Amino acid sequence: MREIALHILDIAANSISAGARNISISIIGNRKDDALDITISDDGKGMTPEMVQTVTDPWTTSRTERNVGLGIPLLKAAAEACNGYFNITSELGKGTKVQVHFQLGHIDRMPLGDLPSTFLALIVGTPDVHWVFQVKHDSKEFFFDDAQIKNELGKDCLAEPEVIRYIREIFTEGIEALALN
Amino acid sequence: MPTIKSLEDLKKMREEALRKQELKTTTGKTEIIVGMGTVGIAAGARETLKAILEFVDSNHLENIIIRQTGNIGIDSFEPVVQVVLPGQEKVTYGHVNPEIAKIIMEEHVVRGKVVPDYQIKG
């Protein structure tokens, strides 16, 4: 997966599998510090320290259908190859926080990719989750909390063509304006 | 298609759409499920979902529920899409790229005909 946005989708899918009701994703690029920080926090079922240890190991997975889970180890390796790090803090019954740091200007850093499509897939595909998205580039910021739209229109509206188009336009315009790649 | 600039505009458009919908006989909703585990995402599930959303938008389909799910358990067939028409059995499709997604939307979701070429039979 040569796109950070796809890795974000993958990590968020873990949060959904963990039964999270609230998931927030923040992507913060800062040219002065040459830093790109991605944080995905959820209030899912959480993990024990042993489980945290094992999910970063390619030979372990929480899945039962197949024996190898590579999403997290691949992202960890990608971050570490760009003077970065990958960190999980988790507490059983409380939730999980995944933090990924890249050197923003590192030559090998994979591009951010199609973030609007990732956000749209998450928000439309899992209407029961309360989503908060934040993307920052230096002083410019895009912020989206789906509570307003769900309170006004109800969560069942998220498969309706007008609503999909409205959200897609908000994401595309808001994120493109940041010029964070 | 008009750009929807504010939540207020969107609410107006929705009320309009709901009024139109009430005039039709109410049938059940069609469910479209896209597998979004690691393997599905790596195989292009996000692009598949994007194509489905674009189809729903440009053809103005109503009574559709789109869901994502974790791994369905048939990795070698990812991206996997499942379609459930009201009152019918779930149909599972494999290797659904955006082009195939469009065919499934046209044939199965709109016309109600299963597309055997892409179907995974268990």
Folded structure, characterized:
Chain A has 181 residues and is an alpha+beta fold. Chain A is built from six helices and six strands. A six-stranded mixed beta sheet of chain A has the order 3-4-2-1-5-6. In chain A, β3 (85-91) and β4 form a beta hairpin. In chain A, α1 runs parallel beside α4 (115-125) and α4 packs antiparallel against α6. In chain A, 43% of the residues are buried. With 122 residues, chain B is of the alpha+beta class. Chain B has one domain (26-118): Glutaredoxin (3-Layer(aba) Sandwich), CATH 3.40.30. Chain B has a four-stranded mixed beta sheet with strand order 2-1-3-4, covered by helices on one side. In chain B, α3 packs across α4 (98-110). The longest helix of chain B has 17 residues, at 7-23.
Features:
heterodimer, A: alpha+beta, Heat Shock Protein 90, six-stranded mixed beta sheet, 6 helices, 6 strands, 26% strand, B: 122 residues, alpha+beta, Glutaredoxin, 4 helices, globular
Taking pLDDT < 50 over at least 5 consecutive residues as the criterion, the unreliable ranges of chain B are none
CA radius of gyration of chain A is 16 Å
Q: How many domain modules of chain A? A: 1
Overall, the morphology of chain A is globular
Blueprint (SSEs and pairs):
The complex is a heterodimer of chains A (181) and B (122).
Chain A: H1 4-17, E1 22-30, E2 35-42, H2 49-55, H3 71-80, E3 85-91, E4 95-103, H4 115-125, E5 130-137, E6 140-145, H5 147-153, H6 161-176
Parallel strand pairs in A: 1-5
Antiparallel strand pairs in A: 1-2, 2-4, 3-4, 5-6
Chain B: H1 7-23, E1 30-35, H2 38-42, H3 45-58, E2 64-69, E3 81-84, E4 91-93, H4 98-110
Parallel strand pairs in B: 1-2
Antiparallel strand pairs in B: 1-3, 3-4
Helix pairs in contact in B: 3-4
